[in-house]
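Support request, please re-run this one:
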Amino acid sequence: MAKAGEVQPLIRAIEGHPNNEVRLAVVKLLALSGQKEILPAFRRLAVRGSLPTEVRSAVMEAIYQISSSQPTVA
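Re-run finished. Output below.
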């Protein structure tokens, strides 16, 4: 799903899933995809006070990870 660019359901899971472990797993999944296109959504999530601290920290780490990754040469 992340590779196909269908990230809105995943972002909604980060925002509102009742289980923080699920939220963290989705953040990790999207971070591992390395898609820079996800950065604006992650930045919006990072400033949301409603996210649990642990989830917000994971989002900020993912932003750093994606931002500092080198583009892959095909």
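Residues 36 and 48 are 20 Å apart (CA to CA). Residues 8-68 form one domain.
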